[in-house]
Amino acid sequence: MKEGPDIAQIGSLIGDPARANMLTALMGGKALTATELAGTAGITLQTASSHLSKLEAGGLIGQRKQGRHRYFALADDDVGLLLESLMGFAANRGFTRHRTGPKDPALRKARVCYNHLAGDYGVRLLDSLVAEEVITGAGDDLSLTQTGEDKMTALGIDLSALTKSRRPVCRTCLDWSERRSHLSGSLGQALLTLFIDKGWAKREPDSRAVRFTGTGEREFAKLFPLPARSATGRHDKHAVEA
Questions:
Q1: Is a pLDDT exceeding 50 seen at residue 84?
Q2: Burial 125-135 (b: 16+ CB within 10 A, else e)
């Protein structure tokens, strides 16, 4: 027997189409019932319960009870990052599922990736923060500059609370639709919460899509201007080649 982490077990858990659909549904950050997840996966409730038991035993999801109902959610941030990274990897290698519909453009524009902003707006957010030297670093090794700390404090974000979290304050996450990085970590979550609390954006019902209001788009553009493009047409230090 080979020693070391057993990625085959994790791969088999995520690789089942029904379980993959349920995990993707939980990427919206909301806790869902077994019935709701069964509907998402297109399977019976009995089959969904079996799949959920396996996912819970594998440490990918957790559950909590409220009254007579049980709700399921991703176990932690690491699971969300893993799933989004796999989505980005699959998209980058051409493994995509084509689902037409009116929600697709909305999901590509702005959506929730577990607990932070993804899509075109999520990538733009990170691009702007890097260009404005609010965030510095390369790859996953990112940190807020003094300029960044001042800007976040001015926005009303409690940096002391973010630094007390066990999660990194700033982290990149590969965006499956843009195939480039967006901002995750406790700061990514705090900024998405800020946008929603200010009424600039709201979650679409039964969807991961985030819709910005007209005022929200204007405020977002002022706070996070697009950086000038380079000669190659890119404006992202965290770009991933398609």
A1: yes
A2: bbbbbbbbebb
